[in-house]
């Protein structure tokens, strides 16, 4: 097991074991044709649907209360283009340099038939006897189209599990049913161990220094890996009884310290798995969010900025500064949140501490003693702070 345990969850870890059928995640409710038609109308007749990927699904899990994102992602609206049409283009995305560096590191980790990656997997999560370099299987997963690749992946996982040998699936393709539409997901790798367990591998180019890495980056990687694990669990449930076990610790592989050498640590993703599961079931309720929209609402990116602004503002959002790193609409939503004086624009923790006081004006009125329930601890604390400030200013030399 790991010399460098990293936890992206505070949930204690139970002993691993095969999952019973009743414990398996429910497949999200399949949306009907009427919903798909309605979502296509919202997207616009000539706008191709933006496919959902693991990053989008992970971002949904990071902001589970945002109806705006849930609806736009559910309808396949291209959010980067929408942000552009709204006049608030996103600066969201990975630089070309970071992309190339990540690509080179991943190639190094998987070199020589994945010998080093399998050694790290065995060392950190176990799974059977030590892999012998050159003897592991690396099946060819190439096929036409995402459906074809997903089919090849399913076959390779079935054969590898039956073979009981170390197998590396390099960029497999997984399908996950999301609101009645398959989302195709491509993890960096999945390792099948001789004991039949499946482990998701995430390869990142941020460093792991003295066994620990940036907590925010580990959290983002864990949310993304949870989406892959969810898709694998659906696939495992289809493969038979007992279903192969998908490990709830993913293997995070990063450069060691300041070198280019790979190191790895298991990351507990159970909390992210349950949040993602819940989010996907809520995503199936985009029908309810869409039904509450005024007639004629459209997110067609070819429409005018004024029309799109009205449409986007008709869907409730829960902006937080974290959106800046996760959602293409962040600049638009931040501007609206600031214009409304919403305290969430200042951070989720402050929003939590202020309780029922949702705007900056309400908080200032409470601090001045002009509004708010004095029995509310947040109001009482603001009044005390306001009185102390007034006292300090009164005693200031003029
Ligand atoms: S940027 Fe806006 S739409 Fe995106 S998650 Fe945040 S609040 Fe929701």
From TrEMBL:
<feature type="region of interest" description="Disordered">
    <location>
        <begin position="125"/>
        <end position="147"/>
    </location>
</feature>
<protein>
    <recommendedName>
        <fullName>Secreted protein</fullName>
    </recommendedName>
</protein>
<feature type="region of interest" description="Disordered">
    <location>
        <begin position="1"/>
        <end position="31"/>
    </location>
</feature>
